[in-house]
Write a structure and sequence with these properties.
This protein has 222 residues and is an alpha+beta fold. Among the domains are: 70 residues, Winged helix-like DNA-binding domain superfamily/Winged helix DNA-binding domain (Arc Repressor Mutant, subunit A, Orthogonal Bundle), CATH 1.10.10.10; 74 residues, SH3 type barrels, CATH 2.30.30.90. It contains nine helices and eight strands. The strands form two sheets. Strands 3-8-4-5-6-7 form a six-stranded antiparallel sheet. A hairpin with a 4-residue loop joins strand 5 and strand 6. Helix 3 packs across helix 4 and helix 5 crosses helix 6.
């Protein structure tokens, strides 16, 4: 689809980040999008106007940005490419875990739908990427599952990790280094909202996270 529309990589990045912002916060404004993408609000406004003209987003002055159905389909196609590339790099090339996100950022705009579909079939129709994020199918449908934030797990409760953040290289590397990655099991040993920390036992190894970080990790209670 995105090849037919002849979109630039930056246009695709905008659509993808609008989708992420709406998914995470329920809405997307010019200011928040500029922060997320580290681009001046005036430049963001100009690009949003261009995307409105292409019927990819809806936006009125001082209102939130919304994706049209077409814009959402393009965003999900880019996300599908990104997450399949990450999994292919890890499973087939043994690529460094903490470098997967940035490499996929570079490549996601340049593979065809046909290549993405071939990777999908080759990897056995995967449902989640190496960080636990759902991979859209070729119709843009996302696999569904119930999950909680790690911050919601109480003391002495056990859990399995489902998803970790991947957009912050340093954070992703830190979590990987302490074995907080999808499918690992753990237990909350101690937590303190006032002191701002959570102490965990991850497969017999004790680790400590800040409460803010624990709010970025999705788990399932065991």
């Amino acid at each position: 689809m995105k090849e037919k529309l002849k979109l630039t990589p930056i246009m695709e990045d905008y659509l993808k980040n609008i989708y992420y912002e709406i998914e995470e916060k329920g809405k997307c404004s010019i200011v928040e999008l500029s922060k997320r993408m580290n681009i001046k609000p005036s430049s963001v406004s100009e690009m949003i106007d261009r995307l409105v003209q292409r019927s990819l987003v809806r936006h009125e002055k001082y209102a939130d940005i919304e994706l049209t159905e077409l814009g959402r389909k393009v965003a999900l196609e880019v996300i599908r490419h990104h997450r399949l590339i990450e999994l292919y790099l890890l499973k087939s090339l043994g690529y460094d875990y903490e470098k997967l996100h940035q490499e996929a950022e570079n490549l996601e705009h340049h593979i065809s739908k046909e290549l993405a579909d071939a990777i999908y079939e080759f990897l056995g129709k995967p449902r989640f990427d190496p960080h636990g994020h759902p991979i859209p199918d070729d119709k843009g449908r996302l696999p569904q599952r119930e999950c909680l934030l790690l911050s919601e797990i109480k003391e002495d409760e056990e859990f399995v990790i489902l998803e970790i953040p991947d957009s912050n290289f340093q954070l992703t590397k830190f979590l990987h280094d302490i074995n907080i990655i999808p499918q690992k099991t753990g237990k909350v040993v101690e937590k303190s909202e006032i002191a701002g920390y959570v102490k965990l036992l991850i497969e017999n190894n004790e680790v400590i996270l800040g409460v803010d970080v624990s709010k970025l990790i999705k788990v399932r209670k065991l």
